[in-house]
Amino acid sequence: MITMKISTMLNMSLKVIEPNYEVFFILGICFLPMGIVLMITRDNPAFIGITGMGLIYMVIGLANRDKWKKNE
Question: How much is the pTM?
Fold first, then answer.
């Protein structure tokens, strides 16, 4: 009972932080070519996961381009 009360109080005090979608795009730009190069040079198709992660990050970043934070 006490732990439920404490967790409820902690959840109420947490603020929702908007992710920086520009960073998702930048990570996607880094992971996509890195995964492609590792797949080709190491002859290991397991690196397709890094390529896929880069592609997904780029899509998330571009889909939320209007929410990118302005550098001032």
Answer: 0.71
Eight-state DSSP code of residue 66: G
In angstroms, the CA 41 to CA 57 distance is 23
Calpha distance 19→29 (Å, rounded): 17
Considering the chain, what percentage of its residues have pLDDT values greater than 70? Answer: 75
Give me the helices (H) in the chain, please: 2-13, 21-42, 48-63
Question: Rounded to 5 degrees, what are φ and ψ at 18?
Answer: -75, 125
**What is the average pLDDT across 26-40?**
94
Nearest Cα to 34, choosing from 51, 55, 49? 51
